[in-house]
Design brief:
It is built from 14 helices and twelve strands. By secondary structure, it is of the alpha/beta class. The chain has two domains: 239 residues, Type I PLP-dependent aspartate aminotransferase-like (Major domain) (Aspartate Aminotransferase, domain 2); 134 residues, Aspartate Aminotransferase, domain 1 (Alpha-Beta Complex). The strands form two sheets. A seven-stranded mixed sheet has the order 1-7-6-5-4-2-3, sandwiched between helices. Strand 4, helix 6 and strand 5 form a beta-alpha-beta unit. It starts with a helix and ends with a helix. It binds pyridoxal-5'-phosphate.
Length: 380
């Protein structure tokens, strides 16, 4: 099956008991057994739930894996991967990670004796320098947030030491744009909350892989630790995914139009978007992604925080909110929102200036989005 068919049909069959074409929400905690251990494959909903099974199988197909596991949130999925580690094990991770990933690694798992190295992975030589016999996990995120740096997944996979797991957080690209397993990753992680579910109405996470050993270990963690999603949330994710390919096409079209418009705008000093030929990793993006996505970040010529705040509070169709990947456009201010916990000097060194604005372009009419941006920029 091709992608647009998979989103609708992979792992999804009409309900065998009634013929219902839409996956039922199996709102049940337990399942009746005819005699002890004589059941239909379902015993208790932390362990298995039929609505969740459909979503897991669908996600596995979208990422070209053989299995999928769903979690109550993206962080729940990341937590499960980190729990593959033992005290003394070392992890090499992207330096401009999603804030929640940085937090769980440094504030939770460092205390359990796991050692984390954060490196700029846009040059894979930085990863090579940190590899040791203790390296057990390589954790990459690409494109990164909010500067949209691109990491070469194939090159990283080639560096992976024997016995280590290579996991890619594929939230920003979605399986429509990029399939890390095909490029050599062992695991793909998703905040399904974002592009996959796509309608800003559910929080959910997932892992997809190919190896049976990883499946066994992660299924054990999923069931033992219990960060599993409810059936209603799985249903919403299944429904959202049915239009993933259509939404992504429009997100990419609108992202491109917004990036090009801002690039030539007199009030704007810099635009971050991997589709520009001048982007340092444009060729890698072109090779490993189908298109460049709907995320665009930019800085103002007036580099004060006040100017950014003025633009953000004037924007109307771009709603000021955390999160991304929904059908409606969102804007955010990394310096005071997602990256506020980083000290200002460190933040500036990393290229996260006070006037940096991040856009998640939705699927609205591009003329209205451009008019909204122009209006807000005219106020500074
Ligand atoms: C949102 C997000 C997460 C965390 O997912 P939740 O569903 O919010 O728990 C992880 N990685 C990235 C890149 C994200 O954008």
């Amino acid at each position: 099956m091709h992608f647009a068919t998979k989103v609708l049909h992979a792992g999804i069959e009409p309900d065998p008991t009634t013929g219902a074409i839409m996956t039922p929400i199996y709102q049940t905690s337990t399942y009746v057994q005819a005699s002890p251990a004589d059941h239909k494959g379902y015993e208790y909903s932390r362990t298995h739930n039929p609505t969740r099974t459909v979503l897991q199988d669908n996600l596995a197909a979208l990422e070209n894996g053989t299995w999928g596991l769903c979690f109550s949130t993206g962080m729940g999925a990341i937590d499960a991967v980190a729990k593959l580690m033992k005290p003394g094990d070392e992890v090499i991770a992207t330096n401009d990670l999603y804030g929640g990933t940085f937090r769980i690694f440094t504030k939770i798992f460092e205390a359990y004796g796991i050692v984390f190295h954060f490196v700029d992975m846009s040059d894979v030589a930085n990863v090579k320098n940190k590899i040791s016999p203790k390296t057990k996990l390589i954790w990459a995120e690409t494109p990164t947030n909010p500067l949209l740096r691109i990491i070469d997944i194939k090159a990283l996979a080639a560096l992976k030491p024997e016995g280590a797991v290579f996991c890619v957080d594929n939230t920003f690209a979605s399986p429509y744009l990029q399939n890390p397993l095909d490029l050599g990753a062992d695991l793909v992680m998703h905040s399904v909350t974002k592009y996959l579910a796509g309608h800003s109405d559910v929080v959910l996470g997932a892992l997809v892989g190919k190896e049976d050993d990883l499946k066994e270990r992660l299924t054990f963690i999923q069931n033992s630790c219990g960060a599993t999603p409810g059936p209603q949330d799985c249903f919403l994710a299944i429904r959202g995914i049915k239009t993933l390919h259509l939404r992504m096409q429009r997100h990419c079209e609108n992202g491109k139009a917004v990036a090009l418009h801002l690039q030539s705008h007199p009030k704007v000093s810099k635009v971050y978007w991997p589709g520009f030929e001048t982007h340092p990793n444009h060729l890698v993006a072109k090779a490993q992604m189908l298109d460049f996505g709907g995320m665009v970040s930019f800085e103002l010529k007036d580099d004060s925080k006040e100017a950014a705040v003025k633009v953000l509070s004037t924007l109307h169709l771009f709603s000021l909110a955390e999160s991304l990947g929904g059908v409606e456009s969102l804007c955010g201010h990394p310096a005071t929102m997602t990256h506020a916990s980083i000290p200002r000097e460190t933040r500036m060194l990393a290229g996260l200036n006070d006037s940096l604005i991040r856009l998640s372009t939705g699927i609205e009419d591009i003329r209205d989005l451009i008019a909204d941006l122009d209006n807000a920029l005219s106020k500074v």
